[in-house]
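Before relying on records like the one below, remember that each one covers exactly one chain. Contacts with other chains, cofactors or solvent are not represented anywhere in the record.
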Amino acid sequence: MRQAAGGCDREKLKSNFVGKTYFPFFGDVKKNGYSKVFAYLILQEDGNKAAEKWLVENGDKMVEFITWAKGYDPDGAWPGIVPDLKTRSSSGILAVPV
């Protein structure tokens, strides 16, 4: 994310959709300690077996993150783009009640 922001005018970033929406979300993911869970969710979607194993072993952390992300709306303007992850994976890892 830093690299993507590095080539842009920071003032412009603050005013566009990405700067107003995604940067605060990813900052809050990190601030709330969900970076590792988020990364493993992304990796397992690409078939990464180590990520799948970690998610199976840490299902409680995954459910906590997904619940947090689905309720994320820091200023009432979040567009609600967190998908319903219950059925996203054919491996069944994400088939959890959230």
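The radius of gyration is 15 Å.
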